[in-house]
Amino acid sequence: MVKGPGLYSDIGKKARDLLYKDYQGDHKFTITTYSPTGVLILCAITSSGTKKGEVFLADVNTQLKRNNITTDIKVDTNSNLSTTITVDQPVPGLKAILSFKVPDQRSGKVELQYLHDYAGVCASVGVDANPIVNFSGVLGTNIHSIGADVSFDTKTGNFTKYNAGLSFSNADLIAALTLNNKGDTLNASYYHIVKPLTNTLVGAEVNHSFSSNENTIMVGTQHSLDPLTTVKARVNNLGKASALIQHEWRPKSLFTISGEVDTKAIDKSAKFGLALALKP
């Protein structure tokens, strides 16, 4: 197991990935190529296209990496230019991130992440006259941890977000409890490794809204048919069931087929998604 409690965003992440990651309702194609630009610089260019109904969205991302500095430059079909510069480990445990988007002048942000054996801290501030300040912190170990996540708008003088969470982990089980949406939503999640040899996993998530007094429940599972093929399935209390199969047909290149059906409205057409990711 990894040392330290990690960041606040890591609380419940294993269960979220099991229940939501790789499920695709659209058609997506991604290809990555690598080209050396120098002895010490690695350049990776990733082009992706997504078909959402009748709309086609595309973007090109260029990543330049030299020593501990990584620069990501992304251009999308709306002519937005996004840039992220990451400096990893300028001092032990610290990561510094600068990001901005053109032409959005208020999108600039500076972020610092610090990981310690008994703490994880993330702080960010917008680069404008009236920035939004974000802070999250976790205390504990890789077994027990507790944390909080807050955002403050200096323009209005109001807290735009305040969440809290705790997590318990052991070798094959992770349980998490978080209070989100300014205390309105309680989320509990469970992640269990049933059989490591076949990567068989089960997980569940329960959300309760205090304002509407409604509950949302989702359960899911994952199993590897062989070292290159994985199947996943999930269902929620609203009657929506989803499944996917993912095959690594060559190293780092994945082909995924997913589908979703509303069991309470069988007459409606099922949704299908395709994703193809190619890497050399």
List the helices and strands and how they pair.
Elements: H1 13-20, E1 27-36, E2 41-52, E3 55-66, E4 69-76, E5 81-88, E6 94-102, E7 109-116, E8 119-126, E9 132-140, E10 144-153, E11 158-169, E12 173-180, E13 185-195, E14 200-209, E15 214-226, E16 229-236, E17 240-250, E18 253-262, E19 271-278
Parallel strand pairs: 1-19
Antiparallel strand pairs: 1-2, 2-3, 3-4, 4-5, 5-6, 6-7, 7-8, 8-9, 9-10, 10-11, 11-12, 12-13, 13-14, 14-15, 15-16, 16-17, 17-18, 18-19
Pfam family, one: Porin_3
GO molecular function: porin activity; voltage-gated monoatomic anion channel activity
Family: Belongs to the eukaryotic mitochondrial porin (TC 1.B.8.1) family.
Brief account:
The protein is mainly beta. The protein has one helix and 19 strands.
Q: Major sheet: size, sense and barrel closure?
A: 19 strands, mixed, barrel
% residues in beta strands: over 45%
What would the average pLDDT be, to the nearest integer? 94
The helix/strand order is HEEEEEEEEEEEEEEEEEEE
Total number of strands = 19
Note the main attributes of this structure.
280 residues; mainly beta; 19-stranded mixed beta barrel; 1 helix; 19 strands; 3% helix; globular; Voltage-dependent anion-selective channel protein; porin activity; membrane
